[in-house]
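Why do we care about 3D structure at all? Because function follows from shape, and shape follows, mostly, from sequence. That is the central idea of this module. The next example makes it concrete: a single protein chain, its amino acid sequence, and then its structure expressed as tokens.
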Amino acid sequence: MKSLAFVFSLLLIIFQTSLLFSQEEFNVGSPYTIYGLGEQQYYVSNRTEGMGILGIALTGNYVNSLNPAINFKLTNTVVSFGFEFDFLNSTDGNKNSTISNADVSGFNIGIPIDKDLGWALNLGFNQMNQINYKIVYNTYSYGLPVKATYAGNGGLTRINLGMCFAGLKNVSAGIEYNYSFGNIKKLAFLDFNNSQYTNSYRRTENNISGSFLKFGLAFNLGRMFTELKSEELTIAFLYQMKYNLSSEAEVINQTTVGLDTSSLTASDIKYPQALGIGIMNKFGDRLIVSGDFLWQQWSQYKVGNQISTNLQNSMRFGFGIEITPPSKPESETFWTNKYYRFGAFYEKTNLFINGESINSFGIGAGIGIPISQYNSIDIGISFANRGKTGSGLIRDNIFKINAGFNFGELWFIRVSEEEK
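And the structure:
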């Protein structure tokens, strides 16, 4: 029972921390998050963050929250959660703005049921999309000077429950149920700063929810084809179904007599399908190399029957390496028994603005620090840029620090007589 209490205490700390970082209702962020459901979130695990990949084919004793078929190598119960600290600099070539933000990346649990059969469960709480922008400028409306403010925050989060099974020789299959939900707030405010005119104020708060399934397959090609002479060579596939998000909105409008609030059932949102493929191999005793590709059909994102002209199909390529500790180190130093990770990614985002595709490129590095046999700390840094200046666009430079914790065997620790 103490183990369960510890897990719930961690969850409470995470939610309290998330609320602490979100005291201001509308923070300044990237204007690119104004479109669709905002920026796609790619957190999969603390391990993959440092490698710049999604881990579609990356096997090992960790919780993969993207491809359920990959969790077949779990040897013990793993509880992991991560935080991220972002520093964003945005420029249009003339003006610059710099902000910082901290948030919870995700919380995941992996539980092996039968290690011999590769039968394992995974469950988690992870972000999918995030909206965070605030645009303030002076303009004119009906020939009158006005201060315009457009702002939004919120996004989409999912609770996932998955299972994998590797009872078939050299093949692992996984399925995962996801319940996604979110709250999106948007504000449009025109301030005339003149008592003779009524300011224009419109605020919407939209609650959305829906559910979908993911399927995964992984094949150990090295063991299927012995002539390849690589027992760890793995290729994996991922499919995420398209689904509907139901939507209920509350709207607040400014009138000549005050604020008027109304509730309405908004149009359903059609969230697009996604396909992914990945490959992994281990060279020698210490070098792991992995790459993956994820495609998502954002051109079919719809609100009601309306397709957004500012969204396109997205593609993300990632490639990373991990150097594991030596099995028998010649000397014991601080740097000896650590995991070292490096990687890079290129993404054609789902944004198509002013006739331009908004692309992103990033590099990253990380270190895994074992504390004991089942517990560890992961730290990573990354730098990415998105977009460009000119053509009415902006360039985002994003520096990110990731910190994650992994706890093992929490649910299966035997309680001593004194603790009962």
